[in-house]
Specification:
alpha/beta, Aspartate Aminotransferase, domain 1, Aspartate Aminotransferase, domain 2, 7-stranded mixed β-sheet, 4-stranded antiparallel β-sheet, globular
């Protein structure tokens, strides 16, 4: 049943004339076109990380202003290697991170299960830690992890000055600074500094190639040449040295060329979109205004009714609002994440309000419909 609903959503979204949240679904044939855009398909594929993979690594190191970068098949693997490096170099097996970081919430605590590390939380507030909280840590740590943006707190970012202060505080207690920059691409406008300046505040940084820029898969770690050499060894030990990865590398290069220049437009447009959605009956958005191209939206209706209404609006009126609603701690109030991407750039604030009103009419129809039995 879940798979059927998923396929219905994808088919309905692909046929929509207007899309408020997310990108139009792309077929495998669509993605094959990315490979040609990412490089010369008449060239030789990589063998254990040379060729197009090397080209991608050099491109990323150039964008981030680091000495080197290394490709990883997954971000989860990359993050484990980054934390292991800090522990090996310092002899400290505790890492400071927020309880809402990707490492804690979405990676099955791999840092503990695979590397024997443990975490300490500088804060439980829904934001990145402050310099004062880092300085006040009760035990020595090998690294301080900062997720930019902190997705599970609502895609929130610190200010530039706060980020500089946290970086300095971490070094002041003898810890490395590691940025979980899976979505660093969309953090640049809010921070007001370029990718290289942001990465320059960290000792290492992880970036994703499928988040934001739309690659097939893959990630990279960037930092000093010594760090990257270490990462290559451990990538092999973790099973990440695949024979050929040219499809992922070429699609990442295409995404850097195609999507990265458009990201500032998405971030700017997220602000009027969020403001319009906040005007819907009972709606709340956070943060307001958004820090990136993504933000959270709450509506006073059950998640099931909201998901059903999104599908009905798409199938009946060729308009996509947003799905993936989930219940909250407040009964009858559900939340979803809104992503402002290419299709939404054509929508004015008036368009957004009208789409929201049409969506809510479908919600009301479902809530007022008689139940069977």
């Amino acid at each position: 049943m879940a798979d059927n609903t998923k396929h219905r959503r994808i088919a309905a979204m692909a046929a929509c004339e207007q899309i408020l949240s997310g990108d139009r679904p792309r077929t495998m044939r669509d993605r094959l076109a990315d490979l040609e855009a990412g490089g010369d398909l008449d060239g030789q594929p990589d063998a254990y990380g040379d060729g197009p993979v090397t080209a991608l690594e050099e491109r990323v190191a150039g964008l981030l202003g680091t000495e080197a970068a290394v490709f990883f098949p997954t971000g989860t693997m990359a993050q484990q290697v980054a934390l292991r490096y800090g522990a090996d170099r310092s002899g400290r097996h505790t890492v400071a991170m927020h309880p809402l970081t990707h490492l804690e919430v979405h990676e099955r605590h791999a840092y503990a299960q695979l590397s024997g590390l443990c975490s300490t939380w500088p804060t439980t507030e829904p934001r990145n830690p402050t310099a004062e909280e880092i300085t006040a840590l009760a035990e020595p740590v090998s690294a301080v992890v900062i997720e930019l943006p902190l997705r599970d707190a609502g895609f929130v970012l610190p200010t530039w000055d706060e980020l500089v202060a946290v970086s300095e505080a971490a070094r002041g207690i003898g810890a490395r600074v590691h940025f979980d920059g899976a979505r660093i691409w969309e953090s640049v406008p809010h921070l007001g500094h370029g990718l290289a300046e942001i990465a320059g505040l960290a000792d290492s940084i992880y970036v994703s190639f499928y988040k934001t820029i739309g690659g097939i898969s893959g990630a990279a770690l960037a930092g000093t040449a010594e760090f990257v050499a270490y990462a290559r060894v451990w990538r092999h030990r973790y099973g990440g040295m695949l024979y050929q990865q040219w499809p992922a590398a070429l699609s990442a290069l295409a995404g850097i060329d195609r999507e990265l220049p458009r990201v500032p437009d998405y971030v700017r447009h997220a602000q009027p979109v969020a403001a319009a959605l906040a005007g819907l009956p009972g709606a709340r958005v956070y943060p307001e205004p958004p820090h990136t191209q993504r933000f959270r939206l709450w509506l006073p209706h059950p998640a099931e009714a909201l998901d059903a209404a999104a599908l009905a609006l798409a199938e009946q009126e060729k308009v996509w609002f947003a799905a993936g609603w989930r219940e909250t701690e407040v009964p009858g109030v559900a939340m979803t994440e809104i992503t402002v991407s290419g299709p939404a750039l054509d929508l004015t604030a008036t368009d957004v309000t009208e789409i929201g009103e049409r969506f809510l009419r479908h919600v009301e129809e479902r809530e007022s419909a008689p139940t069977s039995g």
